[in-house]
Amino acid sequence: MTLPDHPTNDAELWAQWGRQHWRAVWGYVWGLLRRRDLADDLTQEVFCRAWQARERYREQGLARAYLLRIADRLAVDHHRKAGREVNLGDQEWKQIEPAERAGRGDDAIEKQEAMAQLAATLDRLSPPQRRVLLLRYYGELSFAEIAEMMECPINTVLSYCHRGLHTLRSLLVETDP
Amino acid sequence: MSDELNELKRQMEQATAPRFEAGGELESETASLRAGWLALEELLVAAEAQIEPPMCSVPFVPTSRRRRRMFRRLVALAALLLVAVTLISYLAGRKQTASELAKTKPVPAPARHEPVIARKTATPEPSPGKKTPAAPNKAELAWNDSFDQEFESVGWAIQRAQMDQFAFASKSDELEYQLEGLRKEIEDSSL
After folding, report:
1. A12 to chain B, minimum CA–CA distance in Å?
2. What band does A163 get if pLDDT is binned at 50, 70 and 90?
3. Can you give the residue range of the structural domain that contains A31?
4. Which has the least CB within 10 A, A43, B40, B112, B171?
């Protein structure tokens, strides 16, 4: 999958590219920040930046990894600046969330429960553990690539992964009836 | 890379391998870690199904953050334009007012002040060799000039007037000295 040369010529190809990778990028950003509004914004930003840098992009069959790199940088930048923002709690956020977005009925409740369970699980991981596991899942990156992206030694990345998996096992497997 | 690190890497790769790639028997430790990974994978798959990707098309619909950024840029641009327009209109208005004043109410050029000579006994004619600075030209004080030029012209006029005054004062001192000499000669003479 390559980036289109021109939006008017390859708009459909571009849309397909977005459809293939949008969920992964959104999921990665949401997994790191756990806020829908930020995930929406940053995912759009990722695709826009990828579009702007399309001349520099070379096809290597790693489109998703390329997008996740941009997403990772943006999410980390945001995390650094997050101290200046006012973060709302779940209850406060639900009060201002538009009604149509929150949804109605059992389906909406199921969706919210799935997201809430995932959020609770990710909350138990440290930020670097979360980053390593999410990059591994969404980008299918090698540990060497993750180490390069996180700018740390590979043994540190492996250690994060190991401890993260331990936590997940104790949270999700050992507590199951 | 040490053997221990290689072993850890192999273990993590096996534990976190995609579902379809995993095969063969795993060590007990690796298998337990993989169970944690698969549980996370299930949660992520379930959550991913809830994500509704927008209809991707180029250009993208601006997000609220981008809209806010665009709005800020527009406000900054508008403020800049407002300042520029105000400045231009102010300068144009000032020029226009000056030209209108010049047309409707011509102001005479300031009269040249005659130098005041202290202790004057006689009004000597200035010597032909010494030239006094020329009087300021009336055209220099025209109302069509900008204020800066007018200030400059007035400054020059004042400086010239002062120079005139100094020249006449030194001349009168010299004459007074000569007259004093004559008076002494007359008093001392037998006449």
Report:
1. 7
2. very high
3. 1-87
4. B112
